[in-house]
Amino acid sequence: MQALGITITLNSLIQNLSIEKLKIEGNLIMSQILIDERWQGVAFIALYGKDGKIVLHSNPHLIGSKVEGIQDLFDKKSPYYHRFTLGTGEEVFLSDTRINIDQNQYILRVALHLYPIEELLRASKIYLIFIFLSAFIVILAGITTILIFGKIEKMQIKLKELENLSILSRVLAHEIRNPLGSIKGFSQYLSKKISDPTLKEYLDIIIKESLRLERLTNELSTYANPENVTLYEVNLKDLIYEVVLPFIRQNEEIEFINQVEDIYLKTDTDKIKQILNNIIQNSIDALQDSKDKRITIRAYQTNGKIKVEIEDKGIGMTEETLKKALEPFFTTKPKGTGLGLAIVERLCEVLKINLHIDSKAGQGTKVCLTIPK
Fold first, then answer.
1. Is the same domain home to 237 and 220?
2. Are 177 and 217 in contact (CB under 8 A)?
3. Which of 224, 257, 289 is the endpoint of a domain?
4. Between vectors from CA 143 to CA 139 and to CA 146, what angle results, nearest 5°?
5. How many domains are there within the chain?
6. Do residue 96 and residue 37 come from a single domain?
């Protein structure tokens, strides 16, 4: 646009002059254009004849010189825009336009420096990069906000569920435990008094189901209302042995491998025992159809924390089952309550213990507890 503006201005001035008069006044016209602030960035202005000789030039010393390639411009579409590299090595933008003076054709050339445009392009690129980064930050902030709100919503749902479970557990404790105790107590009393084998069998079923319902009520109450934390100093090795011993006596076909160091820590022993009990019981259940009946228990200190690992070579879990393993009431066992691992997770939250489960179908399961000292 700048080259076009200069060309139109010069052309309107030149049309009223003869070539002889133009040679006298042309240099003055070109000098005025070069110093005009509106036409900043002009490299040079020149007028060429058909023979390639310079008729006028913003540099008077070049007038009369011959330039190669000018003759070809008379056959090209006018105006003809292109780039050209000067003898100094600078690349300029050229506008070559055919004009008529005294019924003869000439080429009016306007050469513009490229650096103002390049600076503008650089500024535009920087601006575009800034716009892109700003948009990216806004999008990232939006996605982060959505994720945060999603997590908050999930936490609110979970808190609501826990609140509902808490109310339900209190109802169970009040409305079910008392009559359940009576049913279990009288069934046990009658079982001792009655000698009829058939009636005794029925009473045993009532006692067994009463115990199962009592266990479910206790588990639900524990999950929904974990008791306050009471800290005691304990030797973790002794505590684990105390938990494992009853399992060893009841499951002689299973090999328990204890790799536990002498570690002292302050914790709620009852809650730790319940966590270990539930995990070990799950491992035992997983070994029912396994040939390699081993459960390995490790406990060691690392980076100022205590790690307890319980690993079995049982049936393991699929990825889908592992994702749901900690959900309340989810179970793959025929008579399971689905609260074992849910209680483990709940108690771990209360004790600030990090719970991590690795499992592969057909290869076994490893549960890792990271306990702060």
1. no
2. yes
3. 224
4. 140
5. 3
6. yes
Q: What is the pLDDT of residues 130-154, one digit of tens each?
A: 888 888 888 888 888 888 877 878 8
Task: Taking each helix axis as running N to C, give the angle between helix 177-193 and helix 115-175, from 0 to 180 degrees, rounded to the nearest 10.
Answer: 50
How far apart are alpha carbons 7 and 338 in whole angstroms? 88
Average pLDDT over residues 2-18: 68
Q: How far apart are CA 85 and CA 182, in angstroms?
A: 106
Which residues span the domain enclosing 271? 232-372
Cα–Cα dist 48/105, whole Å: 9
Q: Which residue has the higher pLDDT, 22 or 300?
A: 300
Q: In what order do the strands lie in the sheet with 364-372?
A: 255-260, 294-302, 305-312, 364-372, 354-360
User: What local confidence, expressed as pLDDT, does residue 159 receive?
Assistant: 66
Pairing mode, strands 354-360 and 294-302: unpaired
Tokens of 307: 């790690």
> Of 52, 61, 5, 74, nearest to 33 (Cα)?
5
**Cis-peptide into 79, omega within 30 deg:** yes
Q: pTM (2 decimals)?
A: 0.50
Of 318, 313, 325, 323, the residue nearest 365 (C-alpha)? 313
